[in-house]
Amino acid sequence: MKLPRLIFVTGKGGTGKSTVAASLATALAPRRPTTLADLEGRQSAMRLLGANVIDADAAAIPANSRTDTTDADVALDFLTITPQGELEAFIQRIVPLRAVSRRMLRSRTFGYVTAALPGLEAFLMLERLRQLGGNAALNDRFAVIDAPATGHALELLAVAKGIRNLAPTGTLNRLSSGVEEFLFDRNRFGVLLTVLPEELALREALEAAVALRDRLGIECVGAVLNCVPPTLFMPAEIAKLRRLEAHALLAERRNAQAEFARHARRELERAAIAVAELPMLYQATLGAHEVATLSRRLATEMLPR
Questions:
Q1: What is the count of structural domains for the chain?
Q2: CATH code of the domain in which 264 resides
Q3: What is the pTM of this model?
Q4: Exposed, middle or buried by CB within 10 Å (0-12, 13-18, 19+), for 99?
């Protein structure tokens, strides 16, 4: 699976995209310096690694929570990207005087301007991703983005075109053209979908891949089929359980889950989507140790030796 410099991880809510993002960043970091960025403000992927989020541009992993894949020799840093933060940064860039830019941000008139440009804050988040991806390409780095769920992610990725249509000339038009060029560049940007072995999650992933390709012209670099259970029972074993009806039913359900995972993989591959699998971890909670286990599996399946 060929990965671009910036990997945008999204999927149906509940499919484990934050876990996948954290695991992928952890797998990449020993090979190249890697940034793990959050777009939802919850820092879920960062917290899985035990990171203490200091501010929007900094976080650290305490020494006592490091694993063999998050030690001092691994170049992994963290970033939170928020709509308000990017709007403030944009205004401060075009109005360098801090006192003036702060007054603009607080003014009611400026609120009317931003309301008249729907998607401006989302677009500025995309512009930040463009800068992050450009920096990764120039400095031989990777960036992994813990993105919103599929529906919101598709809306976000479509914003640049809308802004370009609203602003046919000027700074916003120039920036939106640059963002679209970045999103179309398979070496700099790509989407990684997360999928559970469930019908709704599979359907949403397949529909998202079609929308990315046909509507947005964006590369889907692959899918991670998450929480795949092994087949535990042979048919003869289930037959012996028939006299214990509830036990037999549980065994059949477990085997059905494993069978559906194989079906999901076939459907994704039929849609020309490269697939990596992560096993079901039977843990009440996930943390840095479990992420390290998953990262080793992703390194085996997704990264070149």
A1: 1
A2: 3.40.50.300
A3: 0.84
A4: exposed
